[in-house]
Design brief:
Elements: E1 45-49, H1 53-67, E2 75-79, H2 90-95, E3 103-106, E4 113-116, H3 118-129, H4 137-167, H5 173-194, H6 207-220, H7 237-247, H8 250-257
Parallel strand pairs: 1-2
Antiparallel strand pairs: 1-3, 3-4
Helix pairs in contact: 1-3, 1-6, 1-8, 4-5, 4-6, 5-7, 6-7
Length: 278
């Protein structure tokens, strides 16, 4: 293991030249940095997001609701380019003071309901339309167990493993090993769960699957961080089979494209305003 000569100072100071993929926009302060007006489309549900794993959760759920026949789930999806700092515009910060995507406004209420944090948005929409939350108190509780597990665990995968394996300006052995170990432990948690039942929280597809798949499903399918070989994802056959089943759902295929502005052009849909956009 390599060692570092870095010794933390007594008082941390912000260094704007700290490097990394997001160094140009990272700051230790919150709040709006520019005055901006967010667009609004014709639907009650207005989504402001990007097709990161957290953004994909919401677009997949919205497409699943439409697949189930809920016309009121139709939505406008507007691109928020986080690399350019669009999440720090005043209108966006008014929805999410934490300046993270996704953010949603529901104009079917008066005043409009603001929603931020992907888990909160999934729970709100599932309750609003009365689906994908189980058919009993026990089923709902188990689904929420796994929803909150994902919300608490994914930062180790994204902010930990993904950051040091992909986005950090230099490769360091200790943090990569630390977060690879934790990521594999989480994959093993899911592998053991899926050895007992077809979906994360039981016998039925739910918002637990929708929350977990964009992170862990994409990871074991080789679609996240280009890390499938590094993490030996073949060691999780139940998780891989579940991930493939979820990926085959038409609503998931559509949801993956929304608010995506990179990769193959056929898979990009930076804005979405109607079902015909696909």
């Amino acid at each position: 293991m390599t060692t570092s000569s870095y010794i933390p100072p007594k008082v941390w100071q912000f260094d704007s030249e700290n490097g990394g993929a997001f160094a140009a926009i990272n700051r230790p302060t919150a709040g709006a940095r520019s005055q901006t007006t967010l667009p609004r489309g014709q639907h009650a549900l207005q989504l402001y997001s990007l097709a990161t794993p957290n953004g994909i959760k919401v677009t997949v759920l919205l497409e699943e609701l439409l697949e189930l026949g809920f016309d009121a789930a139709d939505y406008d999806a507007w691109l928020i380019d986080i690399r350019s700092g669009a999440q720090f515009g005043s209108d966006f910060v008014a929805i999410n003071p934490n300046s993270k995507i996704p953010a949603l406004l529901d104009h079917s209420t008066n005043p409009p309901t603001r929603l931020f944090e992907s888990g909160s948005i999934l729970l709100y929409l599932a309750e609003k339309f009365g689906v994908l939350l189980g058919n009993s108190s026990a089923e709902r509780t188990e689904i929420l167990n796994w929803l909150f597990w994902q919300m608490g665990s994914a930062p180790f995968v994204g902010g930990g493993f993904g950051h040091f394996y992909v986005y950090a300006p230099e490769k360091f052995e200790y943090p990569i090993n630390r977060y690879a170990m934790e990521t594999k432990r989480q994959l093993d948690v899911l592998e053991r769960q899926l050895a007992q039942q077809p979906f994360i929280a039981g016998d039925s597809y739910s918002i637990a699957d929708i929350a977990i798949w964009p992170w862990y499903g994409q990871l074991v399918l080789g679609q996240l961080y280009n890390a499938a070989e590094f993490l030996s994802v073949h060691e999780y056959p139940q998780l891989q089979a579940w991930a493939a089943r979820i990926a085959a759902r038409p609503a998931v295929a559509r949801g993956l494209r929304v608010n995506r502005n990179w990769g193959p052009e056929a898979l990009q849909l930076p804005e979405r305003h109607s079902r015909s956009d696909f």
